[in-house]
Design brief:
two-stranded antiparallel sheet; 18 helices; 487 residues
Length: 487
Amino acid sequence: MSQNILLLYMSLYSLKAGGPYRTQTNEAAVRVLMGHPETRPDRILALCSDSVRLKPTVCLPGGDGSPITTLAYMQDRFLPKVELAPEALTVIEVPDGLDDQSRARAIAQLIEQIHTGDNLYIDLSGGPRDAAMLMVTAARILRDLRQVEARQVLYAELRGDHITPHDVTGLYDLYDLVSAIDEFFTTGSARGLQRYSALKETGGDFATLLDAINQFSDHLALCQVQPLTNDLKAIRKALKSHISLGKNLDDLFFDLLNQRLQTEFSALFKNIKNALPALVDWCTRHRLYQQALTLLNERMPDFLCEHVLLQPTQKGMDYLNPHKQNDARPWTYPLFHFHFCQLILMQNEDRYTTDLRVPRDGLDDSDMIPFRVATDDQITCYFDRLLALDEIQLDPGLRPEIQQAVRIYKSVIQYRNQINHASSKAQEIQQKGILPLNTAAIESLLTEASGLLEKIAPLSPVAPEGIILRPVTCLLYTSDAADDLTR
């Protein structure tokens, strides 16, 4: 059964005989929580120093003049006043001066006393200067270790003989937001932001922004490439629509998130339409390798062909059209998957087989050709052949970049296959052309890819006279403008 638990560091209470009466510092927080049934503490975990436990410093008015300890006062005099049994207070002994060892021991004892489902309340009023940090640290550990949430954080301010309680929960929640932002930009996960939004019951501009970030995170985690552009637009729109008045912590939270997003997504926001290089770079820097590979797999062919002259001639289209696996696909798909990804198999003059499946008797003694990436020389020879056959048109001035892109794209497909198929033969061997499956090699490839795409992003394809640019949306097995295109 869950409990409401108040965590505090008990302040030393000094009350001289015959002197003016004042309340003990921690009393204010206890009274605030007792004022509402839903926050009423079931238990109080009190860090008690040697002086609090052992030093008699309290002479109560009307008493016999014998001093008692602060702990005795809280247990026997104060708690009954607020209808709490003395047994509700659990003492955690600490020395008067805390060092690393005693801090660690105190945190460990606190964690032992609090369980999953409990509601935590914190009083930051008492103790030495490091007491507040100790309790906040314990609270953060409990949140991550046992999903215990700090529901309210209080402190008491002494003004003369009067103590005024203050609620600083919003300030404590700043830790949650900072952690959630860091989690998102480290792992791409928006779970921390979702949790923060649910606990804070956020609304308005902040809720709109968090919804947009959540959509981006979900689509990225599921490698759903197509919606990412719209997600970025939604995030940017939500950031622009908020006018911060700087009057409260909610405004500060929004501004902090805004600043981090503007820093992290500056390259993405710069040109959302051509954000592929920046997206790949962002995923690479945050070690989201599968997502980066998926982005390149799905978007790189169109991106390349939209920025440089690279397309089949009509003769090339006629060659691709009869193959059923290319039916009703945009021409960029077979150009990359049929030609470039299989060009090792298509080295022979007879074009090997129509469906490019490798026979079980193998093409060489290792049967590893399907797992290999073509060398630069093989790519050059294959392009020479396609140009000689008048099956492809490309910008000769950008041919090195185009051939580099072909090698990168084939490598992307190979890495995705190796990652998705753990039993792949390619992982069992180390031969020329077989890509090493390790994060350093994948990161190097992705960095090369984003750099190349960034280089061509400002370009537009220039067609020589007599050649019409083929839209990347043009489908095979259709007559859409095909008859009007020249070779």
